[in-house]
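Teaching note: in complex prediction, the entire set of molecules is handled at once rather than each chain in isolation. The prompt given to students was simply: 'Predict the structure of this complex.' The entities are:
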Amino acid sequence: MNIVILAAGQGKRMHSNLPKILHPLAGKALAAHVIDTARSLSPQTLCLVYGHGGDMVRTTLDAPDLAWALQEPQLGTGHAVQQALPHLKGAGTTLVLYGDVPLIQADTLKRLLHAAQDALAILTVELADPSGYGRIVRDAGGRVVRIVEQKDATSDECRIREINTGIMAMPTGRLGEWLGRLSNDNAQKEYYLTDVVGMAVETGVAIRTTHPGHEWEVLGVNSKVQLAELERIAQRSTAERLMEEGVRLADPARIDVRGELICGRDVFIDVNCVFEGTVHLGEAVEVGPNCVLKNARIGSGTRLAAFTHIEDATVGADGQIGPFARLRPGTELAEDVHVGNFVEIKKSTIAAHSKANHLAYIGDAMIGSRVNVGAGTITCNYDGANKFQTIIEDDAFIGSDTQLVAPVRVGRGATLGAGTTLTKDAPADTLTISRAKQISIPGWKRPVKTRK
Ligand code: UD1
Ligand code: CA
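The expected output is the structure of the full assembly:
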């Protein structure tokens, strides 16, 4: 079986410098959805016909298993498939997909391919408003005789409500001959792939029609309005799948998964959360409202409070993160770590049972177990040119408003007094304090304003 994905069209109505098929849907290029679905059917050849947006399309989507066929100029869907012919192998079936119809499901395609054994199979739907589409013309016995494009159709044909979705499968062995016979003698002066249907009928090849599992699978993207409509459909279907797997969503209409979200049992996700890349949520994780998680792994029982932002980071089990916490790339928290509001952590590890509950910046640090990081603590990890590491050993207590000028080490069980600017290592089990001594000056007067 071969699959050809047509993706040479321009997409003028997107009004964008980005080629249409590269626009993101659920965090992934439109054509990448089609490629992934096609790949799941294990075709012998997977060929993309490209044209508009040429190099950018090819470099963005390229993968070792893809064959590329350039269509330049674009003379119609039949002409497009013709460009792929040199790549098509074997006596089996060739399935034609569209790069701008991203939500097509593998189950639907399997049924179409099944119908295409020794036949030409067309994926069709009946629409209340069929305008713009090619119509499926049947004879009195209900047999398909041809497809007519709207622009070439008679007014009777225009009343047909069964339309060509554009997705079809046919015997590879016949394709070369049929495509070679196409003419562009029609209203659009294009080589229509749909004309092979009439040829198949003439040569006695059976025509079968199948239908998609859901009507939305065959919706195409021609504008930003349609892109947004398909985004909602894709998100709704992801939300439903999550709920069927046992995830509790505060509102299935207010979650956006732009990648892969893998959840354990009894996960709860509040409203307006965005998940990007690959995110793993362990058992009974609770995600508060308005959280953004990208490429993150959250351990079981952990609670992420509202407005938590996590990227390329891992959080251990039974943690409490947020509200308003920011875990940046390279953050690794062990179990039962508490990270509170307005705490930013970057490229740091924090061992079990440690806390940084208020207003802190922890960068390039290694923090042990049962450490308390006081409010306003800052690791001064950057001298304007290079980054340096801070090490805080187990059971240390970092007083509020401390600056740790890296590279620096705080020994096990050490205490730093509030307001300390630590420039040298602090010994274990000792109070280190760098504050000037507090004095009170009797009789001191506040300055007064000088009269002008
Ligand atoms: C096509 C079908 C029509 C069907 C409709 C469904 C033909 C002649 N008509 O019409 O029956 O109802 O799709 O949406 O096939 N493409 C190329 N190269 C080309 C032309 C198109 O790669 O030269 C690609 C486009 O990028 C797109 C797909 O083929 O992915 C369909 O092209 P489009 O122009 O949308 O086809 P329609 O004329 O709408
Ligand atoms: Ca179209």
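Point out the following to students. The radius of gyration is 31 Å. The chain has a mean pLDDT of 97.
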